[in-house]
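Sorry to interrupt, but I need a hand with the structure work. Could you write out one complete protein record for me, on any chain you like? Could you add the entry underneath, on a fresh line?
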Amino acid sequence: MNFNEKLITLRKTKGLSQDELGAKLNVSRQTISKWELSQSYPDFQRLVLLSDYFGLTLDELVKDVDVQDVREKNISNDIINSIYDDVNKGKNVIKTCIILGLGVLTFFSFIVIYGIFFK
């Protein structure tokens, strides 16, 4: 059973609405809905609260949850692409700074050489 299915079953077994469970965990009904639709997953603190509330160990609560599935849904391709774009922009800025630095160093080297040889 997936985490979202397990959460729905546990919530309904206790006779709770999404609003009521959200109030117990200090999250919104929308957050509970996203967990139940597998659009997001609770953080560790909320998992502990859920396990305590339902009288389960963390292992029982998350058993059979595909960790790779959680990772894929929490880190979307857009976020990964954005990270790579930022890294590439940073590399370009560093390259530009190095080229400008070498240019300035070369310019001052010529000034020093000119001063030494053409006094």
Q: What stands out?
A: The chain has a mean pLDDT of 85. Helices lie at 3-13, 18-25, 29-36, 44-54, 58-62, 67-74, 77-117. Residues 76-119 form one domain. The chain has two domains: 3-74, 76-119.
